[in-house]
């Protein structure tokens, strides 16, 4: 049975490393976009600069502008 009462903010808080791993390492652009959307929407404002730095690092590793 599925729990339809999952709080996305709590999910991201508890699973941040796994969500970031999808952004960093998935070959599926849709999966990366979904993971990034979760991080973007549910990261506290005081952590957005860190999140921006993470995206820059991912782009740099992938060699894309």
In brief:
With 65 residues, the chain is mainly α. It has three helices and no strands.
Largest sheet entry = none
Total DSSP helices:
3
Computed structural class: mainly alpha
The level of helicity is over 70%
First-last Cα distance: 43 Å
Roughly what fraction of the amino acids lie in strands? under 5%
Number of domains: 1
Poorly predicted sequence stretches spanning 5 or more consecutive residues = none
The overall pLDDT, averaged over residues, is: 86
Task: Tell me, briefly, the overall form.
Answer: globular
Based on CA atoms alone, the radius of gyration comes out at 13 Å
Question: What is the helix/strand order?
Answer: HHH
Number of strands: 0
Organism: Halomarina ordinaria
Protein name: HEAT repeat domain-containing protein
What does it look like?
This protein is mostly helical. The protein has one domain. It is 72% helix and 0% strand. The chain is built from three helices and no strands. It has helices spanning 8-25, 29-42, 48-62. Helix 1 (8-25) runs antiparallel to helix 2. The longest helix is centred in the N-terminal third of the chain and has 18 residues, at 8-25. It starts with 7 loop residues before the first helix and ends with a helix. This is HEAT repeat domain-containing protein. It comes from Halomarina ordinaria.
Tell me the layout of helices and strands:
Elements: H1 8-25, H2 29-42, H3 48-62
Helix pairs in contact: 1-2
